């Protein structure tokens, strides 16, 4: 406790120094500016962890190679036997025969009890121990008794989300290629300006939001030990949100947008459907929690209920017209686009992780209080930092300064959340090589720390000076919306769907999904971060603008390569999803409820 | 005492209530304050045509790649002579119609150049139209999309009098008897782009940009002291958009300066006049806009000296005095 206080004290002493260091803006030694160093360190963390995972895997592979070497030695021995003389063989065999004839009675070493695993210690039986390429992962050993209606809702929400993910990232991939080949097509509805918001909105409201709500339905029902208040409302919301994404995308491609503010490009009649969908979802969740069968409200439900109410407020503030002429619109834009990410995607997803991570590890969350701390600080700090998207803009200086200071304050909820997740995983690290769910959780957690902290240092005035308006922003948003949110969502989906449907995806394909998505994201991120930095420095040098376009070209190629890997991983994910849910109704619940011994043996 | 762990109602009310309070404080109140902005005295409202152009600008979502904000830092000085202020957006940032809000023209990404002052930087309508038809016709390294749907292909015989024909180079469009004409949308969009000019502040321009790195600043000062302006750099900033870095221009759109008699003539009066007043004597090329108000005598002299001594051209340098003389002469002519 004392140590903790010391750390906080030290932090408070250092913080003003870090912030005031931002006052002098010089690029003489940009490499040693705190923001840039911070970013390097954060990226290095991800690298190191990836290398550790890889090392563990390679280690397992080398072990199995060694075992094979032993096999070859045995074969060499066999050959030697073949080459022996008949007389020699006879002598050896006679000797052996005598030895073999000697028999124990069979009960010298044992009692008369029948062997059985009464305490359930045996969790898995290796059926193919010589498989050299992949570690066999732990099978899902228990299934959950879930009402069919709820199962159907979860599966259809995730199913629709998967469809939007594949379509939305296909569009994203196409946009990435347009940087390399600007003359790819000459259709007005496929032009870059119109298609860019189609991509962002589709993966936001289509993929992430639907997947989150679908997974949320299960959490709400499970942690309240209750039935969902009204199943048919869930279907209404499902239809409304899907209709929003469909109509919104068509409208954007037709050139009808709300004025180009990022993430509120859908015009209000379309976004209204989304808002109604959220309101219905909120009431449904709230009523379920209100009639819960246990007295405490689980921390996940704090996050989920709050994120719904915050987002409803946010959508209303973002679309009301009374204060949005002139730069009023810009103030609201900074507020809206940041809160959209922070209060909706981040908050809801964290709520999901607070349930699915401990449940996947079959142990409680490390600290409930840290979760509560993270919740309130998330609300306090995240709300204040929207204007950091407009540093050096004509917006009032005090608004920009608040945004920068509170961006630094984001350390508290982020460190609280990361610590909580990592400490929950502590002691179960060996699960990383044994489970196909945990690597997703681990990468999500690391990116939660890295992506959020990187965002905070990016708000500092110097780093903003170099990076703002460059492709670095695009890298940051993929690091968070993809590295954090998408990876967490995949972790939750792979954790829960097999338990609902009784069908597990092929481990090779889940591994393929994981590594392609991870390597793809890394290539995407690093290329745009490096290119974005050089672009910013080129602007500072006062070079002609077109030079910054020319220098970006190789980085854009690498971004397209990374994007392709990510897209392929989504196709694999879509297949895995299909495999997990196909024919889920035919599997009888009695089969699902098999005792553990039967499944493992 | 509140027990959020057990009272769902209080939990939701507290989370919602605090969030709404913070939102009002950090978003709604400042937004209302910013809305009270008034226009700069000289600021021009958009005409109906320019407003129509703004609608095309929004529909094509040009904001995805182009910013319209000059930040108060040195590197943004190339996009405007002063940092943007809230009043700059008085006329352009109004609610578009019932369905669409005030456009987010400030932007968040500078994949293409900032457009705050594009009307001053690039006043030529012909350049804009060709650039929209195919950006790579004028800027070979550009990654901007082409907008062919803003143009129409018509039979030369059916050409109407008020049709605006776009001078497209042969490599891009070569159909005998056909011409490319600009649609109404393209013309209005160009009207809007030409409208985008930074309004001068009543008190004159004060340089309040935060300087970039000291080294560059020092080098620049040295350069200016040591012998004036860099003609090559000025040329690439002001002239190369049309005449290209190679000086060869674009056949069918912008004339070549290489070996041009106007450029290399011993008498520089005509050349200086073209720069000061613009030029529209040849129907096979686009119109050259005047640069007299935009460039100083020293700058014009530096650019012309560069033109006359590059790409194989070999003529005597132009001095600022030469330019000043012609400028005086032109002004006298105008006063008559």
UniProtKB/TrEMBL annotation, chain A:
Show which residues constitute the signal peptide.
Answer: 1-21
Which ranges does the record mark as transmembrane? 36-58, 154-175, 202-221, 233-254, 266-286, 298-321, 341-358, 365-385, 397-423, 435-459, 479-497, 509-530, 556-578
**UniProt keyword terms in alphabetical order:** Electron transport, Membrane, Respiratory chain, Signal, Transmembrane, Transmembrane helix, Transport
- One GO cellular component from the entry? membrane
GO terms (molecular function) for this protein are: cytochrome-c oxidase activity; heme binding
Pfam families named among the record's database cross-references: COX1
Q: One GO BP annotation here?
A: aerobic respiration
**Cytochrome oxidase subunit I profile domain spans which residues?**
120-601
What the entry lists under PANTHER family is as follows: CYTOCHROME C OXIDASE SUBUNIT 1 (PTHR10422), CYTOCHROME C OXIDASE SUBUNIT 1 HOMOLOG, BACTEROID (PTHR10422:SF29)
Q: What is this protein called?
A: Cbb3-type cytochrome c oxidase subunit I
Automatic annotation (TrEMBL), chain B:
Extent of the signal sequence: none
Q: Which domain of life is it from?
A: Bacteria
Domain (Cytochrome c) ranges = 48-197, 226-311
Q: Which residues cross the membrane?
A: 12-32
Q: Which UniProt keywords apply?
A: Heme, Iron, Membrane, Metal-binding, Transmembrane, Transmembrane helix
- Could you give a GO molecular-function term held by this entry? electron transfer activity
For this entry, the protein name equals Cytochrome c
